[in-house]
Amino acid sequence: MFLLHEYDIFWTFLIISSVIPILAFLISGILAPISEGPEKLSSYESGIEPMGDAWVQFRIRYYMFALVFVVFDVETVFLYPWAMSFDVLGVSVFIEALIFVLIPIVGPVYAWRKGALEWS
């Protein structure tokens, strides 16, 4: 028989962690002052009057560098358990980890050779 009382702490934590953000948004929505006008609708840039349009197109290369960083950052997280149990797992897992590291390296090398990572 499945006993639900064993999970009382989990359900309590889940309910409290769900109610606190909802209450925070509700209270801030009720207590926040509402003031609309031209000052409220203008963009603020360190006290200087904004110049030009607020919509600026970024080049795709910024996103390429961000994605390369995220790929290698996530890869590092996945390599940590392998590193901690390397002595137990053996050589076959080392080869798998090596392949796992080499696959994401091939993508940026290919993009670099094609000129996708050039700033100019």
TrEMBL record:
What GO cellular-component annotations does this UniProt entry give? chloroplast thylakoid membrane; mitochondrial membrane; NADH dehydrogenase complex
**Chief localization class?**
mitochondrion
Membrane-crossing residues? 12-34, 62-83, 89-112
Q: How does it sit in the membrane?
A: Multi-pass membrane protein
Q: EC class of this enzyme? A: translocase
Cite a single GO BP annotation: photosynthesis, light reaction
UniProt keyword annotations, A-Z: Chloroplast, Membrane, NAD, NADP, Plastid, Plastoquinone, Quinone, Thylakoid, Translocase, Transmembrane, Transmembrane helix, Transport
Where does this protein reside within or beyond the cell?
Mitochondrion membrane; Plastid, Chloroplast thylakoid membrane
Q: Could you tell me one molecular function GO term of this UniProt entry?
A: oxidoreductase activity, acting on NAD(P)H, quinone or similar compound as acceptor
Pfam families reported for this sequence: Oxidored_q4
Q: Which reaction does it catalyse?
A: a plastoquinone + NADH + (n+1) H(+)(in) = a plastoquinol + NAD(+) + n H(+)(out); a ubiquinone + NADH + 5 H(+)(in) = a ubiquinol + NAD(+) + 4 H(+)(out); a plastoquinone + NADPH + (n+1) H(+)(in) = a plastoquinol + NADP(+) + n H(+)(out)
Record has DNA-binding as a keyword: no
Instruction: Tell me the HAMAP family matching this sequence.
Output: NDH1_NuoA (MF_01394)
Record-linked PANTHER family: NADH-UBIQUINONE OXIDOREDUCTASE CHAIN 3
Q: How does it assemble?
A: NDH is composed of at least 16 different subunits, 5 of which are encoded in the nucleus.
In the record, the note on similarity to other proteins reads:
Belongs to the complex I subunit 3 family.
State what protein this is by name: NAD(P)H-quinone oxidoreductase subunit 3, chloroplastic
- Organism whose genome encodes this protein: Houttuynia cordata (Chameleon plant)
**Which gene is annotated as encoding this protein in its UniProt record?**
ndhC
